Amino acid sequence: MKVAFPYMGNLQIGIQSCLKKLGVSYLEQKPITKQTLELGVKYSPEFSCFPFKVNIGGFIEALEEGADTLLFAGGFGPCRFGYYGQTQAEILQRLGYKFDYLIIEMVQKNQKDFFRKLSSLSGQKNLLQVFQAVYLGYYKIKILDEAQKLAYYYRPREANHGVTDTVIEYIKAQVHEANNIFTLKQLWQELSAFFSSINIDSRRTIIPVALIGEIYTLLEPKINLNLEKKLGKMGLEIHKSIFLSDWIKYHIFLDAVGYDYKRHFAKESARYLNREIGGHTRENLGKAVQFIKQKGCQGIIHLAPLTCMPEIVTKELLQKISADYSVPYISLFIDEQTGEAGVNTRLEAFSDLLKFTTSIS
């Protein structure tokens, strides 16, 4: 057995750690390339969203390299994401590939099913061992997310461009190599020290911005064209709505004991949308308002894959938030045709707008 899984931000570091702890052989995931996108576009339905196409391309490459078992993500509700696993499996089977697969999904708080599926991969590990493996992977992702939050502060302020990115890559390498919770907790305690050595240029004008959108597009740099680094270099301090470790904490761990994570943004989003429509729409709207009120964000950047139905609704409702709080926003919808030069131009213009409105306020 050789397992392959979707490539998304730091997800692969967590899953690899989990599978290694379980004694499961896995395929070392390669970063998303132009070939990945070309394969995905070729074999995916034309109007499927961009993450779907990226995953198809990645799975084809994995199967060609010897993977025989695929982990698909699934879900439920109005968003098309709930059909990803079944649809992608059928496309790959029609292309002639032979493989086993598991669809990992959180439906009706059925966490036991999630852990049993992972246990079936190992063949011999009990549920407690599976939980320990999942927690190890989760802890790695959590550390990387916390490091990223620190990077959002330091990147726009660093005196020498690129130092923050170097620190992030060093931390990522250390986390990847760690094989136990004790080592990871030591890294956690040292996080602030890694960044405190970065020289700060206190003369710069820093503008806080809310970064909201669809989870895959937010978390995968190859898809969003390294958006976070671009914003940092423009002097914009990011406050992001979704982190992978938070999603795991709420949907796998806390959801099992009845914790309602939606209460964190339900009040702020209810004014604009009072029902569930799938995806991250209600969360994005609530977080955008919270970031304006609590973090002083002076702009909203909305990121989503083209044809994503929930995010199309988000885009329209952001107009009301923008008007209510006198905060400008920009929506970037990304697909395989998106050019980096065009994105750079729009971001630079938006950055200039924020700096101008800040200077006259």
Protein architecture, described:
The chain is an alpha/beta fold. The chain folds into three domains: 3-123, Rossmann fold, CATH 3.40.50; 129-154 and 158-202, no CATH class; 204-361, 3-Layer(aba) Sandwich (Rossmann fold), CATH 3.40.50.11900. The protein is built from 16 helices and seven strands. The strands form two sheets. It has a four-stranded parallel sheet with strand order 5-4-6-7, sandwiched between helices. Strand 2 (69-73), helix 4 (84-94) and strand 3 form a beta-alpha-beta unit. The chain is globular, with a radius of gyration of 21 Å. The protein starts with a strand and ends with a helix. The mean pLDDT is 92.
Short description:
By secondary structure, the protein is an alpha/beta fold. It has 16 helices and 7 strands.
Helix content: 55-70%
- The CATH class of the largest domain, by name, is Alpha Beta
What structural category arises from helix and sheet content?
Answer: alpha/beta
Residues in β-strands, percent: 5-15%
Query: Overall 3D geometry?
Result: globular
Strand order of the largest sheet: 5-4-6-7
**What's the count of strands?**
7
Please tell me the total number of domains: 3
How does the SSE layout of this entry go?
Blueprint: E1 3-4, H1 11-22, H2 34-43, H3 50-64, E2 69-73, H4 84-94, E3 100-104, H5 111-122, H6 127-154, H7 163-177, H8 181-196, E4 207-213, H9 215-219, H10 221-224, H11 227-233, E5 236-240, H12 244-253, H13 263-270, H14 281-294, E6 300-305, H15 309-325, E7 329-334, H16 340-360
Parallel strand pairs: 1-2, 2-3, 4-5, 4-6, 6-7
Helix pairs in contact: 1-6, 2-3, 3-4, 6-7, 6-8, 6-12, 7-8, 13-14, 14-15
